[in-house]
Amino acid sequence: MARITFIQNDGVERVVEAEPGMTVMEAAVKNSIPGIAAECGGACACATCHVYVAEAWREPTGHPEQMEEDMLDFAFDVRPESRLSCQIKVTDALDGLVVRIPDKQF
Amino acid sequence: MSEDVIKTDAVIVGAGPVGLFAVFELGLVDIKAHVVDILDRPGGQCAELYPEKPIYDIPGLTVVSGQELTDRLMAQIKPFGAEFHFNQRVESLERLEGGFRLTTDGGTKLDCKILVIAAGGGSFTPKRPPLPGIEQYEGTSVFYSVRKMENFKDRDVLIVGGGDSALDWTLNLRPVAKSLTLLHRRAEFRAAPASVQKMLDLVESGNINFKLGQVTELHGEGGQLTSVTVKGADGVTFEQPTEVMMPFFGLTMKLGPVADWGLNLQENLIPVDTAKFETSEPRIFAIGDINTYPGKLKLILSGFHEAALMAQAAHKYVYPDKKLIFQYTTSSSSLQKKLGVK
Questions:
Q1: Complex ipTM
Q2: Which residues in chain A are closer than 8 Å to B129, comparing Cβ atoms?
């Protein structure tokens, strides 16, 4: 189990428990976290599950692959810490992960 | 004008897997169909969102990609000769005696006896960047597609994005526009390498500008854009004067005009009964992801089942005097004749 904290733009924090193997997007959707639309259902085809990974977690969560980087072109207010949460696989090592949800998802 | 109207038994709105399979099921009961879709090719979400992604829950196929499923369905429905109207969205629905007249945004008029809405999550429409006040510029200064060249003629044009649409329009509008600037968040492009090279050559020769960054604010008045604020890749903000902006941020699904056709809706879905998959209005059916009923699952296979039952119910409207005898494709010589295998 890994505990993941989602911080809304208004500062509200929600902590959910995620099983290793699922994606951060799936953990969000399963727990009805607002702001993660995941329109395409996790196919890395829509950029509506955009999150900002907290500085301390950028290395452990890895870097976007080419496809994800391309799809981030379709997100709004992309920053160096931007990721598509459907492309971050939960592992035990990510216990304590903190991600911020953008002000606006397309 | 009546000679311009296409007359058909059925119109299917949406050429996704469920819309395509509806052609098959309707064809088996001798109902001819026309299919309208906003995209430029069949497949719906399978083509637009996940052509290369694997689907594991189509009965009998261990794994199939969105594109392959689409190709297989197109082959399967070939004997029924459905006509496709791509790049078009059905805008309006008019009630006629014993049917409907549909008009698309491309001006195509279709008279049909039954209507099958297989529009999935809605029609694919360009994403609107969440920039405050963008609505007031749409159609005058902000465009998501090029309908009229004069909107761009002798104007300062800003194109935002790095995919094929952004690059294609950069190349096509350069000779028309007064000045053209391409803005993208990074120096890498998803677009076809040949277009990227052409664009870079134009930047090199001073014919267009390329800037790195993302738009954060719009400025102007009376629907007329004068400049945009851009956050550069280095984090430094600058003003980019422009009269026109074309943002290319991909597509999203919107229910669209279906919402105005007078059907009962439940959270943007169309409630149907589970015997006929008919909506609140006789002769209008809804199948696939766009419908809802107790226990609904948004699965392609559920849509296929719904298409089969819909076709049985549709038969009575198209052939009110004929009794429909249920037959199997395996053993019925008349069905096999329709399929062209006998």
A1: 0.90
A2: 76, 106
